[in-house]
Amino acid sequence: MKKHTLNIRKDDTVVVLSGEDKGKRGKVIKVLPDEGKVIVQGIHMIKKHQRPTASVREGGIVERESPIYESKIMVICPNCDSPTRVSHKRTEDGMNIRVCKKCGESIDKV
Q1: Does pLDDT of 1 surpass 60?
Q2: Whole-angstrom Cα distance, residue 10 to residue 41?
Q3: Which residues contact residue 68 at a Cβ distance below 8 angstroms, ignoring those fewer than 6 apart?
């Protein structure tokens, strides 16, 4: 399976574009590039039936985040605080950084 290159990284703030959680904001917990999905805090919650084990003392129904497709979310620029597309730019010292398409400022913390 082809590995996707995602414009979203861990600890980015994102907004959901479509689906049940449309309009909600959250922080990216984990990126799954092989599947083209990300896990966002408080978004796309599912109920999982958990059996009691040695590590999990109490069983029952547990709510947790489920992966969501990258195409359904958009990065929020920390400078202009709006959802934006991402472009890439190479700095003088040779690093690749992500840049906001709206305000032109860097999204990455340098």
Answers
A1: no
A2: 11
A3: 16, 19, 37, 38, 39, 40, 43, 44
Q: How far is it, in rounded angstroms, from Cα 28 to Cα 41?
A: 6
Structure tokens of 28? 């990216």
What does the block give as tokens for 78? 């920390």
CA distance 108 to 95: 11
Percent of the chain with pLDDT over 70: 95
Strands (E), the chain: 13-16, 25-32, 37-40, 45-50, 60-65, 68-69, 73-75, 86-90, 96-100
| Structural domains in the chain plus CATH codes | 1-76 (2.30.30.30), 79-110 (no CATH)
pLDDT single digits (tens) 42-92: 999 999 999 999 887 888 999 999 999 999 999 999 999 999 999 999 989
